[in-house]
User: Fold this.
Amino acid sequence: MTDFLAPVEESIAEAPPPSRGGGVVRYLLAKVGGAVMSVLMVVVLGFFLFRVMPGDPVSIMTRGRPVSGAQLAELRGRLGFDKPLLVQFWDYLVGLVHGDFGQSYAFNAPAGQIIGERLGPTVLLSGTAAVLAAALGLWLGAKTGWHRNGPLDRGSSGVALVFWSIPPWWLGVVLLMVAGGVFPTGGMQSPDSPSAFFPHAVDVAHHMVLPVLTLVLALYGQYQLVMRASLVEEMNADYLTTARAKGLRDELVRKRHALPNALLPTATLVFLHLGMVVSGAITVEAVYSWPGLGQLTAEALAAKDLPLLQGIFIVLVIAVVVMNLFADLLLRVLDPRVRAS
Amino acid sequence: MLVRRRLAGAGAVVALVAVASPWVAGSAQAQGEKVLRAGVTQELDSLNPFITITRVGTDLTRLTYEYLTTYDPKDYKPVPGLAEKWETSADKLTWTFTIRSGVKWSDGRPVTAGDAAFTFSTMMSNKDAATANGNFVQGWDSVTAPDDRTLVIRTKQPRSTMLALDVPIVPKHVWEKVTDFKAEPPLPLVGSGPFLVQDYKAAQFIKLTANRDYWRGAPKIDGLDFVYYKNVDAEVQALKKGDIDLMSRLVPAQYDALKGDPNVRLNTGAGRRLNEILINPGATSADDRPIGDGNPALKDVRLRKAIALSIDSKALVDKVWGGYAQEAAGYIPPGFSEFHWPEKQKFDPAAANRMLDEAGYAKGADGVRADLQGKPLRLRLLGHAGTNLDEQASKYVTSWLKDIGIAVEPQMVADQKVNDATTGANFDLAFSGWSANPDPDYVLSLQTCGARPNADGKGATPDSFLCDPEYDRLYTEQLQETDRGKRVELVKKMQQVLADRATLVLLGYDNPLEAYRADRWAPFQTQPVDGGVIMNQQGYWGYYSAERGRSTDAAASASAGGDGGNTGLIIGVVVAGVVVVGGVVLLVGRSRRRGAADERE
Assistant:
């Protein structure tokens, strides 16, 4: 990689400016089109996938309750199970076009509204954790890669590997046992959380500390290791020797020359993970009773709440697809080689 | 540089949070309100009393709305609620309830018989309003309110369950404007119970305030919060730390581990749940056609009885439930002592072996008996994956049945799969269980011919697929018997018949395990009084009895509670200090280095 990277850079620099307008539009259209296709396929898949799952929603809903046969039949009719599957599928598509995911069986509210309520907490928790983990991981990765085999490298890479291998829920439980006395044991706010903005934000932040810490510890290792590896690969590149020959300080060589190139694979990784942010914290949400989408997914699965499951599935997939699209577009901005091809 | 700036920002946020943490932790107590916080693990499906079917939802309706009658905390006998007295006509078809005067809705309007008549007649005429409790008004002829204090209900047949109508009475003046009975009601709810729902955040908490005008007298606390915990381990931590005051659903290991905590008092008592293994007796559908794929050998009642004889309930109580359960006897759980048939289920593998030998089930060389067609007796045992009882007990059951020459293959699958298989009769043996109510009618009805599903395995909630003329006759008699003493006898007789038909074998009745903060709360009213529970009662007694104070045996060491709080505060301050210092060092280092770099560029 190092051998051919520098010449490519040169050739880009010397090549006549490409006809940007058309290329960009075509590139954008192709990527957006692909993304839309993926989402459409998921819409179809989501409907049939959850219907193949075992379990009759009506009997799950009424389990352990005194209900008569007439009540069961009435419920079945109300949920639309007495209609042929294709009619149900058509109703589902028509609903989706109108932005309606259907009525949740388990929560007696529109599935879209429930998902909306839970999306915020999840993005807040996982987003904060993802940004912190990426920042910490990249920073440590750059440090340790540059000072390869130094004491910091040996120590922190080992620690990162350990955290990366620990199951997040277990880490969460341990942190809860250790620090549960100082930080809240669960939830996103206390029941008597003040309503004024700043005190409320402090209350929420206070509840966020442990789950965010758990997620950061679980996630930062991969960024550190990837960043470290890709920096190590750049270390012996000729352009670094050139930079040093120009008399630049070692730190500047690292920051100005080595890091931007080493960041490319890591940036892709970060964006792929940002897509997973929405779905990524299911187990940690469970440990800390975080009122997010992960929890909701578990509930919806247990109840076989089809409209809710379909809705969650679509939202999660859209998040991943959109972030992948961003990663593609960003890579084009960051990496001249992608533009050239 | 960007990365470092972000890191410094993150450090600052953490420092801010840590500094604020002692202040936030103190805010709950600072207001001086007496609020009981109970942990719950189940999410609420709806606040609409006509719709809600979850345990949490029905608990909330019991707290928010008064019912015609409620259940005595002593022994679950029906006692006056909104109705202060009642009488039945000579033909047992007309029930006249006298509604208590002076009871007010939380908006100040009086509660009248018209409210009750509106509630019941809406459920009879509107299918949506019948969602949760429609079964209670089935077989009714009419409901009327001739005056504000008189409610008259006419039924088509005599019904012994008329004092066990678990139907929340709603205010007519609020609900008569409602057109969609599936919709969520606006908050705060207008009710007549001891607590009123004020605020609700899905998957976070439900806040209730005390009803100062409650007719039995205002509760001794200001409010009641239900706080969600998705994880019982976290809930235990919350209890130890004091984030919550009361919790249920502990597992034996957690319960035993809390024994040493001086601030916590434990409570265990008779639960409502019966645990059983179903034995498929050759299931038939509602139109008497065979359904499912049960092993035909199980049609022989002698084989089923031998299986029942080989189950050692005491071993399950000791080993699976850690002693926190009661040994199997009658079908109605022992907490409902009036209806419970106390004769213990026999464990006698030798007798089981003798029975099978006599019935002609010959043992093969491998120790497995052959059925009467000569095929080896191999049975599937279906259980819920991840459920402690099913996972552990299936191992014991397999070995016990091996001892009497029956090969068992345990299959632990997802709840939904068990549910599908048992409602469609696609099983040989299956773990099952029900929560019984103070009135035994519903769990008894599960074993009647009428509980069988249609040919698709749908349209009913079957249990063991028993369809027995004697049992059904007794069931109808008990449903029409309005003399309680005679009804109790009939119900006990039914339990004998059930044991005799052996389409199910009881495993035991697990006790709910509860814990509360003894340093803050006086003992709660349990139901039943002797050996009962605080949460998940059939009534509001536990929460209604909540009172600040100390539970006696914990009082001596309860002062440790204050120290615990201070320790938390000190740790919080120290952590905050460290983080702040760290943040400052980071910021200073950053600006110094940045300065140096700027100079050289």
Observations:
- The first strand of chain B starts at residue 35 and ends at 40.
- Confidence is low (pLDDT under 50) at residues 1-10, 15-30, 554-570, 591-601 of chain B.
